[in-house]
Amino acid sequence: MIIIPVKEGENIDRALKRLKRKFEKTGVVKELRERQKFTKPSVKTREGIQKAIYIQQLQSISDNS
Questions:
Q1: Can you give the residue range of the structural domain that contains 60?
Q2: Is residue 3 domain-resident?
Q3: Is the C or the N end of the chain the one with fewer CB within 10 Å?
Q4: Residue 51: inside a domain
């Protein structure tokens, strides 16, 4: 559970902004989205390989330039 202490006289918008930032850093929202659907391990592996190929191509392009 994420706890955000609200300081005396602090604007509620500022406290909400801190809460959202903390959620973003912990990855709670990302994990919830991933858990909404099941992806097979083979699909995850394939996506990882495709991502690695893409990054490698980008790096080779930048090295050649």
A1: 12-64
A2: no
A3: N
A4: yes
Residue 18, token pair as written in the block: 């801190």
Whole-angstrom distance, CA of residue 18 vs CA of residue 22? 6
Q: Where are the beta strands (DSSP E) in the chain?
A: none
Q: For 15-64, what is each residue's pLDDT tens digit? A: 999 988 998 888 888 888 889 999 999 999 999 999 999 999 999 998 87
Q: What letter represents residue 16's amino acid?
A: L
Q: Identify whether 1 is part of a domain.
A: no
- Whether 5 is in a domain gets the answer no
Phi-psi region of 60 (alpha: psi -120 to 50; beta: other; left: phi over 0): alpha
- CA 18, 21, 25 angle in degrees (round to 5)? 140
